[in-house]
Amino acid sequence: MKAYKGYLYAILSAVIYGCMPLMAKYIYDDGVSPMTLVLLRNALALPVLAVLAYRQSKSLKIPAGALPSLGICSLMGCCVTPILLFSSYRFIASGTATVFHFIYPAVVVLAGMLLLGKKVSWANLFCVLLCVVGIALFYTPGEPLDWRGSALALLSGVTYSVYVLVLSGFRYRQVSGFVFCFYVALIASILMLVICIVSGQLCLPKSILGWALCALFAVSITAGAVALFQRGTFLIGGERTSILSTLEPTTSVFVGVLVFHEPLGLRVLLGSVLVIAASVLIAVFDMREKKKELRR
């Protein structure tokens, strides 16, 4: 039952993340800079996360030993990764950047094998290959490929894989999901506030509607997608959650088609099919393995 919940959490997280560009577009139109949006995404969710965390655990206390892991998760997952990814958009198209960023499922699987000694089945490796091929089809041949943008996007995938690996190895499982999210968002808010001020990128919303959209964005992403991703990682592991998260760009594509009436080419359609197939297969293969273990 836990595995089913883990798959559901990971898929829901990817779908919410996939809707993120739609909301971000309207927020940017209100004068908010990408760096400020990363700050607000964490800061505006803090009151909601605090209430949810207290209701879940009746306390916001955490073991002192958990702070280093929380700090790394905040730095890598909520600060460095979005900064690198958003910076890459200055040099290459966002679709191309997404392709490079989504090397992280493969990095998580390979790092788990080579650095942590984890056993990875051939079925999971096959699913990773399907994801890589599927995401690669999202790239449009002929788009400018600047080495700086490519390097930044690739680095964003590497830093996010560090976040996933630290998250999957988090030992203090007595720390509830919302308490974990609260402290990650709190640390990220402080770091991003300093970064925005130092870099001169602090550009707040100009209208009440802009603030409302930022608040909705913060709650849906930080208290929704991030919390679901973390919970899914705890239940089914970083490798499986990372592979399932490749549904995010597929969701973005279909949101673009439905909302912005963007064209849906054959390459993107085929890529989406491969990503969805990989997500289904990893769940099927895993369920079969668990049934075999129960029969032994």
Detail the topology: elements first, then pairings.
Elements: H1 2-18, H2 20-28, H3 34-43, H4 46-57, H5 67-88, H6 94-101, H7 104-114, H8 122-136, H9 147-168, H10 177-199, H11 208-236, H12 238-244, H13 247-259, H14 266-295
Helix pairs in contact: 1-11, 1-12, 1-13, 2-11, 3-5, 3-10, 3-11, 4-10, 5-9, 5-10, 6-9, 7-9, 7-12, 8-14, 10-11, 11-12, 13-14
Strand proportion: under 5%
The structure class reads mainly alpha
Fraction in helix:
over 70%
How many structural domains are formed by the residues?
A: 1
By DSSP, the count of extended strands is 0
Uncertain stretches: none
Terminal-residue CA separation:
19 Å
Indicate the mean pLDDT.
Answer: 83
Oligomer: single chain
User: Could you give the order of the helices and strands?
Assistant: HHHHHHHHHHHHHH
Rg is 19 Å
Form type:
globular
Number of H/I helices = 14
Could you provide a short overview of the structure?
The chain is mainly alpha-helical. It has helices at residues 2-18, 20-28, 34-43, 46-57, 67-88, 94-101, 104-114, 122-136, 147-168, 177-199, 208-236, 238-244, 247-259, 266-295.
